Amino acid sequence: MATEPPRRVRFGIIGCANIAKKVSRAIFLSPNSTIVAIGSRSLDKAIAFAKENGYPASAKAYGSYEAVLDDPNVDAVYIPLPTSLHLQWAVLAARKKKHVLLEKPVALNVGELDKILEACESSGVQYMDATMWMHHPRTAEMKAFLSDSLRFGQLKAVHSIFSHNSGTDFLKNDIRMKPDLDALGALGDTGWYCIRAILWASDYQLPKTVTALSNVEYNELGVILSCGASLQFRDNKLATFYCSFLSNLTMEISVLGSNGYLRVHDFVIPFQENVGPFYVNANTKFAELSIGIEPAPTEYSIETDLPQEALMVKEFASLVGKIKENGSETEKKWGEISRKTQLVVDAVKASIEKGFEPIEVIV
């Protein structure tokens, strides 16, 4: 006798940010999810957003965020609100037994995040941050190379860059330019990705100390537009990153091992939606007369039927489905990874505020 397919997880979205358009598409592409509600502070805006993004006629539009959380048909919520609102609405969502997919940066500091995670734990709801590249199949393939002791060896150094120059309108009007909405600026936005990449390459080992570099750039309101930092680990490996709203679009991770090297040019958003390339060198030597290297670098291209954001939704919805249908425990690793990322973000911010002094990362 054929078994029925699992019921789709029903999402509500609170907020009509631009990123919610991308995640709405991802929810519809994911085979185990759908959207049943959208909420905005303006009912007209919610109605228009639903229409523009192809929501089914059955989806409810609400003129408040709380109305989405009060909808009994909503299983989970995606929260793309400004960072300053995450604590309030993620905690309320958890208390109302809605599973939480939270846009990054997830909080203004680790104290806020701890309250969010505690609320999710107390209510038995799944938490995940919306760092999409973590879910691309390329990421697992790259990790397999980094775990190969013969080809890669011992991790020695990591460098990551995520920058984009989105022009004067972005720098003037985007919420990431406003200290009352997204006070972490580039550090919380593009820097979050860089820090996550370093932790991912390091098997989520936290650095011993973090030291911000002194070339921080700010807007007139004091929001960080670009910054960088070095991370020193207890086993002497080193990591650095640079994040910016003022430099050409660049999305790179470079990982150096004792025997090998990995580089990816588009880790945040693949240049092509259906394929993700990366490059590796293993046991590289200079060729005779030092006129080249051997063996030549190898390029891998990892194909995917679903874009990484849909794979993120699919994984999140799968965890939610197991909880709802089987009474499974929540998956704790996503909260732990978020917390470690936030700890490093906080340390960079503290180093900047203390005149670029080294800051010890304390769990």
Automatic annotation (TrEMBL):
<dbReference type="Pfam" id="PF01408">
    <property type="entry name" value="GFO_IDH_MocA"/>
</dbReference>
<dbReference type="InterPro" id="IPR036291">
    <property type="entry name" value="NAD(P)-bd_dom_sf"/>
</dbReference>
<feature type="domain" description="Gfo/Idh/MocA-like oxidoreductase N-terminal">
    <location>
        <begin position="9"/>
        <end position="128"/>
    </location>
</feature>
<dbReference type="InterPro" id="IPR055170">
    <property type="entry name" value="GFO_IDH_MocA-like_dom"/>
</dbReference>
<protein>
    <recommendedName>
        <fullName>Gfo/Idh/MocA-like oxidoreductase N-terminal domain-containing protein</fullName>
    </recommendedName>
</protein>
<comment type="similarity">
    <text>Belongs to the Gfo/Idh/MocA family.</text>
</comment>
<dbReference type="Pfam" id="PF22725">
    <property type="entry name" value="GFO_IDH_MocA_C3"/>
</dbReference>
<feature type="domain" description="GFO/IDH/MocA-like oxidoreductase">
    <location>
        <begin position="148"/>
        <end position="262"/>
    </location>
</feature>
<dbReference type="InterPro" id="IPR000683">
    <property type="entry name" value="Gfo/Idh/MocA-like_OxRdtase_N"/>
</dbReference>
